[in-house]
UniProtKB/TrEMBL annotation:
InterPro entries: NAD-cap_RNA_hydrolase_NudC, NUDIX_hydrolase-like_dom_sf, NUDIX_hydrolase_dom. This is NUDIX hydrolase. Its cofactor is Mg(2+). Keywords: Hydrolase, Magnesium, Metal-binding. GO terms for molecular function: metal ion binding; NADH pyrophosphatase activity. The keyword Magnesium applies. PANTHER family: ADP-RIBOSE PYROPHOSPHATASE-RELATED, NUDIX HYDROLASE, NUDC SUBFAMILY. It comes from Hoyosella subflava (strain DSM 45089 / JCM 17490 / NBRC 109087 / DQS3-9A1). Pfam families: NUDIX. GO terms for biological process: NAD+ catabolic process; NADP+ catabolic process. The keyword Magnesium applies.
Length: 165
């Protein structure tokens, strides 16, 4: 994660300062007052259910064996629900029908907050330019991973088992 070096408001080099009990980058210009708070970035994640299976996708930039959920950045003016539907449409060309909140999860390594949903979708999978492969995994064969969106998968599986589905 890159950190600001210059003020995005006045272009003055930022300096280290102790603000709000934390070390933060801030603008030394008294007329400006910019502080880089380093707030987490909101990311939506979709546990996409398609034809009775969960879709795990491979991003072109990942190691060959890594597959994960459909994710994307929440855009200005979107609700998390509309953002996750947009991501399913953009990345898989599927039509989302049911969107159910699973939970929210810190992903501190990337300074993100993941807002995860189960999304039932229909249509034919067509991968966008970010993805190069996908696989259908039966829910009873889905294994959570111990970071990021893997916590959402674990919670969804637990919720699913508790509901007896």
């Amino acid at each position: 994660m890159s950190e600001f070096q210059y003020c995005p408001q006045c272009a003055t080099p930022l300096q280290d300062a102790h603000i709000g009990g934390e070390a933060r980058k801030s603008c030394p210009e008294s007329e400006c007052g910019f502080i880089h708070w380093g707030n987490p970035v909101p990311v939506v994640a979709a546990i996409v259910e398609h034809e009775g299976h969960i879709i795990l996708a491979h991003n072109k930039t990942w190691p060959p064996t890594w597959f994960g959920l459909i994710t994307g950045f929440l855009e200005r003016g979107e609700t998390p629900e509309s953002g996750v539907q947009r991501e399913v449409e953009e990345e898989l060309a599927l039509t989302p029908h049911e969107v159910t909140f699973v939970g929210h999860y810190p992903f501190e390594q990337m300074n993100q907050i993941i807002i995860a949903y189960h999304v039932a979708a229909t249509g034919t999978v067509v991968l966008n330019e970010e993805l190069d492969e996908f696989k259908h995994v039966p829910p009873d064969k889905l294994t959570p991973w111990p970071f990021g969106t893997g916590y959402a998968v674990a919670d969804w599986l637990q919720q699913r088992n508790a509901a007896g589905t």
